[in-house]
Every structure is written in C-alpha cells, then in structure tokens.
Amino acid sequence: MQLYIKNMVCSRCKMVVKNELIKFGLQPSSVELGEVIISEELDTLKKEQLNQALLSLGFDLIDDKKSKVIEKVKTLIIDLVHNRNNELNTNLSEYLSSNLFQDYNSLSNLFSEVENTTIEKYFILQKIEKVKELLIYEELTLSEIAYQLNYSSVGYLSNQFKKITGFSPTYFKLLKNKKRRQIEDL
Known about the structure:
3 domains, Alpha-Beta Plaits, alpha+beta, single chain, 4 strands, Arc Repressor Mutant, subunit A
C-alpha cells in the first residue's frame, strides 16, 4: 500500500515517519519524501489512527488526487534545492513534467489554484531559504552560493534575495537575529 504524507521535507522527517510506522506495527519497505510503501493494507480506523499520530508530529496523510500531485511538486522542488545543490540540467518545467509524467501547464494551473502562488515563486522561495542557510553557515562566498544554486550572477542572486527578504545578502549576514522559515511553511 502506498501512502502519501504531507510535510515530509528532509531526512529527519523520513526517520520520524518510519519510526512512527514501526510503532504502529507496520513494516515500511520504502520511506521517501512524501511517499511511503507498506506491505499491509490499512482499514479506515487504522488509517485514521495513523493520521492522528502523524498530525501530532506535523505530518498529514493525503488522500485526494490534487493534494498528492501538489505534494509531489513541492517534494521534487525541495529535494532539488536543498538536497541536490540544485543540479538542474534542464528548466524547471521540463524537470517537473518528466518526473511527474504530466503536462507542465496542468501542473502549474493546479498548483496555482490550490496554493495561491505559482510553482516558480515557490521554487524561488526555496532557493532563497537555501541562500539564507548557506549565508548563516558562512562556509561559502556569495559567488560560490550563486554558482551552487545556478544563479546566472551574484548580482541576480542579490537582487532576488533583496526583493524577497527586503535585505541584501551582506546585511542579512550581519543580522543578529537570523530568522529563517521552515520549509513546510513556505
């Protein structure tokens, strides 16, 4: 049985969900971002109990088709930006279409309808959060960050960063109270 779970955004999320499934006596054969495969079929009561346990941890079982597609789009973007150093060899629309086997226009329309923002804006927000993370760690220069996240130039990254946050990257580094948003809140 395949389960779709909202708000799984990192490897710790996978670990927490896997542990919760094991507590329920389920043996997951695969736990990926947003998707879990278990060998057992769950009745309605067991599924609701599992969902309540997951809700208490900040996750949510997804049943409707639209939500599953939206969650897959988000998961692919989060994985691309935060785990793969944005190794995008084609444009975002082709990447999503090829991974989800759906036309990008229909994905884009659905995403905008449900999330009240575009896929592109969501992608940019994820990239800016990654830039914030890298700036806080102070391990890379702004030029290295721009290269790592496939920005065409440091100037373009700086302009986009300021447009989204209201601060230049340099000023952001100087802030004492560096507030970042959680990925699932974007």
